[in-house]
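sorry for the late reply, my laptop died twice this morning and i had to redo everyting from scratch. anyway the thing you sent over, i finally got around to it. pasting the sequence first so we're on the same page, its 251 residues, then the predicted structure underneath. double check i copied it right bc i was rushing
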Amino acid sequence: MNNVITQEDIEVGLRELGLQRGDAVEVHSSLSSFGWVEGGATTVIEALMSVVGKEGALVMSAYPVSPPVPLTEEEEARGITWKVRILDPDSDEKTGLGAVADTFRKRPDVICSTSFFRGCAWGHDAHLHCQNYKHLLDIDGWALLLGVDIGRCSSMHLAESVPIPKEITRYFNVPDDILRDYPQDRWSIGYGSTPGNPWLKVWEEALRRGLVRIRTIGQSECKLFKAKTIVAIYEEMRRTDPFGMFGLKAP
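ok and here's the structure:
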């Protein structure tokens, strides 16, 4: 088959992107974005492990949620923006985190936390990395997006400890009737919107500052950046211009 992506192709691309032995890296990925990968998700994982080595670390989110479930016209009219099913933590069902994360989570050499927002990690300090992304930021680790955008970057949520005005959060308050119809033990949903996308604005600012390394591996656009730096931009925006970040006028 032509244009088959091999483990060597991925390793070369990751090293040219700037990933090195000993690096700790948060990984979010779309296997299909590469094109045809010989050996599938396992090949991507083995390539990552080979590049960073056991003195480095790989960290992935592994939340027990389904892929996005299509919305009906009625749901869109009610203000629902996305929905996923909550899965049993021990389910082998495909999750919305992708084939690479699903395969990584099941490896015997990978440590996973037991919380709903579970992380899974391999390598140095895996027992710390799997708890949350704070340890990754503390050691100034990397974030790597393989064919996905900033919206998948879980470490960004750490910036949300910086509060924003209630005039903004009210846009996303889920009405009681929707909470009733979508029990939180069965569904996770998005509700409401604002004119601006704050994570996209963070990404645009990171690009403007030259903080992101970008390279194509196979057909996948891959992005590497320091997680702590991007989180800091988000924190800064939340502190200094929260209304502008959401495309709103301050009262």
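The CA atoms of residues 203 and 209 lie 10 Å apart.
thats about all i looked at so far, will dig more tmrw
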